[in-house]
Write a structure and sequence with these properties.
Number of strands: 23
Shape: globular
Strand content: 15-25%
Radius of gyration: 27 Å
Number of helices: 31
Distance between the termini: 42 Å
Structural class: alpha+beta
C-alpha cells in the first residue's frame, strides 16, 4: 500500500475488474492465439486484435474486451521529436499541447468535457519517433470520442492566442523537468547531445526556451499540415464495444478525411560510425553529486539484435540483483544510483550505462567501474541464472502492462511506431524468450566496444574551469514559415456540429472481497480482480513515521527499507535474486500511520513469492553494515532532494502544520536524524509493530478466496503473536498556528508554492464532502486551480490540491511550480480560489463533472490488482467496512453544492493556511514579501529540518 516510488503513468487506467479475460475474436483477426512457450517460467497472454486500413491510408486496430465497462481510444501519429524543424526543437511536443485546444466544432477545453467530465481521462506523450494521444472513457462514450479525434485531425484551430498560451505552459514544463531538477539537464539534454553527431535524435524533445520563443503560429500550422494527416495516423480502440457498430462509426468519422497529395518527408539522416572514443564534460547548477554516462551507437528497435540488447540491459540494471547495482551501489558503494537503457527507436539510437555517484566519489571511479562491468559481458556470457532472471523480469513486466485496456493499446501502438509492425507486440516476446547467453555476449562484443564509446561527465557548475565553453553549439537562427494556407477557425456557436449523444451505460462488476482472521490474529482479505495471471500481495502494519522516536526522524522508513536487506537465512543479495528470479517485485515503504510490504508476482509463482515476503517481514536481521549503507544512500538522496524546490517545500510542510506532535517532522529522515539512527531503534520498531495481530494481508488478482486464504496460511500461519498488546496509535497535534515561509534556493530554475493546513480525519462525517470540495478546487485538469493558473495564464505545467485524511492527522495542500518571477502571483491565485470555494456554491454542472472524475478514477484503480489492494488495505487500516467500495459512488453523488461550500468555508479557510515558497529569492525581488508580509526567510544552507523553527541555531 505504501510504495517508495510513484506508479508508472500508463498503469492502473482501466475500470475493468477482469482486465484481460479470455478474448474470443472471429476469423480475420491477428489472433496469435497459440500460447507463447513459457521461458523463465513466465507466459504472457497475447493481445488479440484486428487490423484494417482505410482508403485514405489511416490504419485501424481494434481489440474487444467485454469484461470492462470502459474503452480506450488512441491515435498514434508517425511524427516525433526527430521531425522537429531545424532551429525549432520541442516542436512536436509543443504541438501535442495544441491538439487539446479548439477545432471547427469544439471550443477550447471541450475535449476535457468529453473525457474528464464523464469519469474518463485524456493525455498524450511525445517520443522521438511518434506522438500518441490516448483516452479512457466509459464505453457508452465511444462514439463521442471517435467524433472528437476525427475533429482534431481534420479541423484543428491554431490561433495566436492559444499558441502563445501553450508555449508558456511548455516553458514551465521545461523549467520543472529540466531547469529545476539538478539532473534534468544531464538526462534530458546532455546525454543525447553528446551521443549523436548528426542525427536529430540529438535534439532535446522538450526543446529550449530560445527556440520555443523563436517559433511563430505559422510554423506550428505548417507542422500540422505536414504531419497530421490520415496516412500518418493509426487509430487504436481497445475495450467494450459492438464490433459492427464500431466499424461503422470509424468509417463515418474518419474515412472521409482527405490525405494531402504530397508525401510525408522522412528523416533520412544516417548517424555516421564513431571514429574513436570521446569524453564530454558538462556542468549544471545545484548538482550535489556528480554523474557519468557511457554511450554507444545501437541498432533500431526492429533489428534482430534488439531482443539480446534488451536482455543485456536487464542484466546490467534491472533490480537489486543486477550487475551495476551489485557492483557500484552495493559492493563498492561508489554510486547513489545506477542506470542503463537500450535503444527502442525506429532508427538506430544509443545504448547507455551510467551512475549518479555517491557523496565524495568521482566520475573517474564511476567510469572505471562501469567500464569493468561492460567488459565482463564482452569477455564471458552471463550465467544461466542471470539470463533466466532477466527474461523473467522483462516478461512479467509485459504481463503487468497488459492488465489495462490502454496498456494493451499502448503495446500495439509502440510496436507499430518503433518497429513498423503491430504484430511485434506479441512476437517480440517469443524473441526475448529465445535469447541465449551467447547472444548477449555477442551483442556486447558487437556494439559496446571501448573505442566507440562516448563518456558524458556531469559536474557542478562550481567545478567548471574559468573560461570553459559549452561543448554544444547553440542552434542557428532559423527563419519562420510564411504559410499561405487558409486557417481553420472555430465556427459560430449556432453553426457548430454537436457531438453524438452518449449510449447506454455499461455497469461495472465490482470486486467482492472476502476476509478471515488467522489464529495468530493476522487479518486476511482476498478479492479476485482479474483473469490475467498476476497476483498482488499487500502486507500492512499499523504504525508508521508518526511513531518515530523524538529526534530520530526516519526510523519507521528505515525499518521498512531494511526488511528486504537481509534475513536470518538470506543475505540482501539473495533476497533480491530470489525475488527477481520469479519476475516479481517486492517493495517496502512507510507512511505516517502504517508501513507496508508489497509483492507483485505471476500467479503460478505466488506461493514462492509469498514465502520470500513472509521471511523478510518476520526475520529481518538489520545488520549494522546494511544499515550504514542504506543510511549513506538515503543521505546522498537527500542531498539531491534538497536542490529540488518541490521536495524542499514538501519537507517543510509537516513541521509547519503538525507542529508539536509526533507527525511534525520529515517522515523519511533528515541529514541530522539519519546518522543517529541505530540498529537497536530498528529492532525495537520492528518488534513493536511488525506482528500478525497488528497486520493486514490483502491478496488480489487471479485467485479465488479459498486459494488466497490457503496461500496466507502457508506463508504467514506460523508467524508468532507476541504476548503483549500492540502499541496504541500516536495522537495527532492539538493546536495549529499559520506560518508563512520563504526558503531561498539560489540558482533554481523554478519556484515551488505550497499552501497547506491541517484538515479532517478519515472518520469525519464530512469525508465525502471534502473529497468533492478538493476535486472542485484542484482534482484534475479542469479543476479551478489548473484552470486559473495553467489554462488561463500559462503560469505552470500543472496546479493541483490534495486532501489526505488519516486516523490521527489530516492535511490539505495546494501545490504549484512556476517560474520564480510568478511565485507571488500564484500565491494570490491559490488564496483567491480557496476563498471563492467558500463564498459561493459550485454550479450543478461543475459539481457533476468533478464527481465524475472521482468516481471514474476510483473505478479505474479498482480495476487493477495493485490498485484494488491499495484501496482494500486503506479501508482496513482506517477501520472502514470493506463494502465501502460498493458504497463509494453513491456517497460521492450524495454530496450537495451546499455541503461543498460549507466544508470549504469551515475547513479550507485561506486565512488559516500556511504558505511555503521555495525558489530563487533574488529573482522574486520584493513580490513574494508583498503578498506574504511578515514571512520568515530561510537560506537553504541555514535550513534545519530537525528544528521546530526550521532554522539552524546561531
Amino acid at each position: 500500500m505504501i510504495r517508495p516510488a510513484a506508479k508508472a503513468a500508463l498503469v492502473a487506467l482501466a475500470l475493468s475488474t477482469t482486465a484481460l479475460s479470455p478474448l474470443v475474436v472471429a476469423g480475420g483477426a491477428h489472433a496469435q492465439t497459440a500460447s507463447p512457450a513459457p521461458a523463465a517460467g513466465v507466459a504472457v497472454p497475447p493481445i488479440v486484435y484486428k487490423e484494417r486500413t482505410l482508403a485514405n491510408g489511416m490504419k485501424v486496430f481494434t481489440s474487444r474486451d467485454a469484461s470492462t465497462p470502459n474503452v480506450t481510444v488512441q491515435v498514434w501519429y508517425g511524427v516525433g521529436s526527430k521531425d522537429d524543424p531545424e532551429g525549432r526543437s520541442g516542436f512536436a511536443h509543443l504541438f501535442e499541447h495544441l491538439m487539446f485546444k479548439s477545432t471547427r466544432n469544439m471550443p477550447n477545453e471541450f475535449f476535457d468535457r468529453l473525457t474528464e467530465d464523464v469519469g474518463g481521462f485524456n493525455n498524450a506523450s511525445t517520443y522521438d519517433d511518434f506522438t500518441n494521444y490516448y483516452e479512457v472513457v466509459p464505453a457508452n462514450h465511444l462514439q463521442r470520442l471517435l467524433w472528437a479525434e476525427a475533429e482534431r485531425l481534420g479541423s484543428l484551430v491554431i490561433d495566436d492566442a492559444v499558441f502563445k498560451s501553450e508555449r508558456d505552459v511548455v516553458k514551465e514544463e521545461l523549467r520543472q523537468r529540466v531547469l529545476a531538477n539538478p539532473y534534468g539537464r544531464f538526462f534530458n539534454l546532455y546525454i543525447t547531445q553528446a551521443s549523436f553527431a548528426q542525427h536529430p535524435y540529438k535534439r532535446p524533445g522538450i526543446g529550449s526556451i530560445e527556440e520555443l520563443d523563436a517559433a511563430t503560429v505559422d510554423d506550428v500550422r505548417a507542422f500540422h499540415a505536414a504531419y497530421y494527416r490520415p496516412d500518418n495516423a493509426a487509430l487504436i480502440v481497445v475495450g467494450n464495444y459492438d464490433e459492427a457498430q464500431l466499424n461503422a462509426w470509424i468509417d463515418q468519422y474518419f474515412a472521409g478525411l482527405k490525405t494531402p497529395a504530397g508525401a510525408i518527408k522522412p528523416v533520412t539522416v544516417v548517424e555516421p560510425p564513431r571514429a574513436g572514443p570521446r569524453t564530454v564534460t558538462t556542468y549544471g547548477p545545484n548538482v550535489p553529486l556528480p554523474g557519468v554516462a557511457m554511450t554507444w551507437l545501437a541498432p533500431a528497435a526492429a533489428d534482430p539484435d534488439a531482443p539480446a540488447l534488451s536482455v543485456l540491459d536487464a542484466i546490467l540494471s534491472a533490480g537489486k540483483s543486477s550487475r551495476l547495482y551489485n557492483s557500484l551501489v552495493y559492493d563498492q558503494q561508489i554510486a547513489q544510483s545506477i542506470f542503463s537503457s537500450t535503444s527502442t527507436n525506429a532508427q538506430p539510437g544509443i545504448f547507455y550505462v551510467g551512475a549518479i555517484m555517491a557523496g565524495g566519489k568521482t566520475v573517474e571511479q564511476g567510469e572505471a567501474s562501469l567500464s569493468a562491468q561492460v567488459a565482463r559481458l564482452r569477455d564471458a556470457p552471463p550465467t544461466p541464472a542471470e539470463l533466466a532472471e532477466a527474461k523473467a523480469g522483462l516478461l512479467a513486466d509485459a504481463v503487468r502492462g497488459r492488465e489495462t485496456i490502454d496498456g494493451r493499446a499502448f503495446a500495439i501502438g509502440y510496436a507499430l511506431r518503433t518497429e513498423g509492425d503491430a504484430a511485434r507486440a506479441n512476437t517480440d516476446l517469443a524473441a526475448l524468450q529465445a535469447v541465449t547467453a551467447a547472444d548477449v555476449q555477442r551483442v556486447a562484443r558487437k556494439y559496446l566496444v571501448d573505442d566507440r564509446r562516448v563518456v558524458v561527465r556531469y559536474l557542478p557548475e562550481s567545478a567548471r574551469p574559468a573560461g570553459a565553453k559549452d561543448p554544444f553549439e547553440p542552434a542557428k537562427p532559423t527563419a519562420s514559415v510564411d504559410l499561405k494556407l487558409p486557417a481553420t477557425t472555430l465556427a459560430p456557436e449556432d453553426q457548430r456540429v454537436a457531438p453524438p449523444a452518449p449510449g447506454q451505460p455499461v455497469s461495472p462488476v465490482l470486486p467482492a472481497p472476502v476476509e478471515k482472521t488467522l489464529a495468530n490474529g493476522l487479518r486476511v482479505i482476498v478479492a479476485k480482480s482479474s483473469d490475467l495471471p498476476l497476483v498482488t500481495a499487500d502486507l500492512t502494519v499499523k504504525g508508521g513515521a508518526g511513531a518515530d522516536p523524538a529526534g530520530l526522524a526516519g526510523v519507521s522508513s528505515l525499518t521498512a527499507e531494511l526488511l528486504t536487506e537481509g534475513t536470518k537465512t538470506r543475505t540482501a543479495t539473495q533476497v533480491a535474486a530470489a525475488t527477481e528470479a520469479l519476475g516479481a517485485n517486492l517493495e517496502a515503504g512507510s507512511g505516517w500511520e502504517s508501513s507496508s510490504l508489497t509483492l507483485s508476482v505471476i500467479a503460478d509463482k505466488a506461493a514462492a513469492g509469498l514465502s520470500i515476503m513472509a521471511d523478510v517481514a518476520q526475520n529481518p536481521t538489520f545488520k549494522a553494515e546494511e544499515l550504514e549503507r542504506v543510511k549513506t544512500e538515503a543521505l546522498d538522496g537527500l542531498s539531491v532532494s534538497l536542490q529540488r524546490p518541490g521536495a524542499v517545500a514538501g519537507f517543510a510542510v509537516p513541521t509547519v502544520i503538525y507542529a508539536g506532535s509526533g507527525y511534525g517532522h520529515v517522515a523519511s529522515g533528515t541529514p541530522g536524524s539519519l546518522p543517529k539512527i541505530t540498529r537497536d531503534a530498528l529492532v525495537k520498531t520492528h518488534d513493536a509493530y511488525w506482528r500478525p495481530d497488528n497486520a493486514i494481508l490483502v491478496l488480489t488478482g487471479d485467485l479465488t478466496p479459498d486459494q488466497g486464504f490457503a496461500l496466507a496460511e502457508k506463508a504467514f500461519g506460523g508467524w508468532k503473536k507476541p504476548a503483549g498488546a500492540a502499541p496504541a496509535p500516536i495522537k495527532g497535534p492539538t493546536g495549529y498556528a499559520p506560518r508563512n515561509l520563504v526558503i531561498d534556493l539560489p540558482g533554481t530554475g523554478q519556484a515551488a508554492v505550497v499552501v497547506a493546513k491541517p484538515a479532517i480525519l478519515r472518520a469525519d462525517p464530512r469525508y465525502y464532502a471534502g473529497l468533492v470540495a478538493n476535486g472542485v478546487l484542484g482534482g484534475g485538469y479542469s479543476s479551478r486551480l489548473n484552470q486559473e493558473i495553467r489554462i488561463k495564464r500559462g503560469l505552470s505545467y500543472g496546479a493541483n490540491s490534495s486532501l489526505t485524511p488519516r486516523a490521527a492527522i489530516g492535511g490539505f495542500s495546494a501545490n504549484v511550480q512556476t517560474k520564480n518571477e510568478s511565485a507571488a502571483q500564484v500565491v494570490t491565485l491559490i488564496r483567491e480560489e480557496l476563498a471563492r470555494l467558500g463564498d459561493a456554491p459550485a454550479s450543478a454542472g461543475e459539481l457533476a463533472a468533478r464527481k465524475s472524475v472521482l468516481v471514474g478514477g476510483y473505478g479505474r484503480e479498482l480495476g487493477t490488482s495493485e490498485g484494488l489492494a491499495d484501496i482494500l488495505g486503506g479501508l482496513a487500516v482506517y477501520g472502514v467496512p470493506l463494502n465501502e467500495i460498493q458504497a463509494y459512488t453513491g456517497k460521492v453523488e450524495a454530496v450537495t453544492a451546499a455541503d461543498v461550500q460549507t466544508f470549504s468555508k469551515t475547513v479550507l479557510d485561506p486565512a488559516q493556511t500556511s504558505v511555503i515558497v521555495v525558489g530563487d529569492a533574488k529573482t522574486f525581488g520584493d513580490t513574494v514579501k508583498a503578498v506574504l508580509p511578515g514571512a520568515e526567510t530561510i537560506a537553504i544552507d541555514q535550513l534545519d529540518l530537525d528544528s521546530p523553527t526550521l532554522k539552524k541555531g546561531k
